[in-house]
Amino acid sequence: MATEALLIIDMSNDFVADDGSLTAGAAAQEIVPYIVNLAQVMHGQGQPVAICMDTHHVNDAHFAEWPPHNVAGSWGHELYGELQDWYRKVEDDAHVIYVEKASYNAFYGTNLAQALRRRGVDTVHITGVCTDICDFLTAAGAYDEGFQTVVHRRGCATFTGNHDVFIDQMAICFHAVIVD
Ligand SMILES: [Zn+2]
After folding, report:
1. Contact, 70 vs 54, CB < 8 A?
2. Distance 6 CA to ligand 1 centre (A)
3. Residue 46 C-alpha to ligand 1 middle, in angstroms?
4. pLDDT band at residue 142, thresholds of 50, 70 and 90?
5. pLDDT band for position 2 (50/70/90)?
6. Which of 25, 27, 52, 139 has the largest CB neighbor count within 10 A?
């Protein structure tokens, strides 16, 4: 039975594309091939892959704090580039999970922990954006839910200068295994 799952966090057009409304830009675009490759490898091994996606509605209260982004059904909410191409091919697979999240932590207010446990998962691999926001807080959520975490330094990115600090902090706080 599968014991490891890949989490792909917030790799939407709004967070990754040049003209996304809250984009991490080139830093986020550079990690796409790494994540696509990891998704293909893990999916090929029969491991679950979870697309964890910030999801809002047009008049979301969250937009008092941030520019509008990831509105359900919009271009900005779709996965970016090659990730969307890959997802289209596998989206009906029982081991591919799509989780709509409303906050930073993909485990908060979602069925992600249940969906993973049902598939026998005890370890989650963290990739996506942003290292120091949703990746870090999802690692915290995974820790609280009792999952071992593996964090991919070349599979995460952020628009700030805090990338390496937060990757290292995941090892300190959550005993995450770092893949360099
Ligand atoms: Zn949001």
Report:
1. yes
2. 21
3. 30
4. very high
5. low
6. 139
Span from the CA of 45 to the centroid of ligand 1 (angstroms) = 32
**Contact in structure between 40 and 83 (CB atoms under 8 Å):** no
Ligand 1 center to 2 CA (angstroms): 31
Distance from the CA of 104 to the center of ligand 1, in angstroms? 7
pTM above 0.90, yes or no: yes
Burial class (CB in 10 A: 0-12, 13-18, 19+), 152: buried
Compute the distance between CA of residue 176 and CA of residue 47 in angstroms, rounded to an integer.
Answer: 19
Distance CA 180, CA 177 (A): 10
Q: What is the pLDDT of residues 49-106, one digit of tens each?
A: 999 999 999 999 989 999 999 999 999 999 999 999 999 999 999 999 999 999 999 9
DSSP 8-state secondary structure symbol assigned to residue 71: B
**How many helical (H) and strand (E) elements, i.e. helices and strands, does the chain have?**
7, 6
Distance 136 CA to ligand 1 centre (A): 15
Domains, the chain, in order of start with CATH, read 4-179 (3.40.50.850)
pLDDT at 23: 96
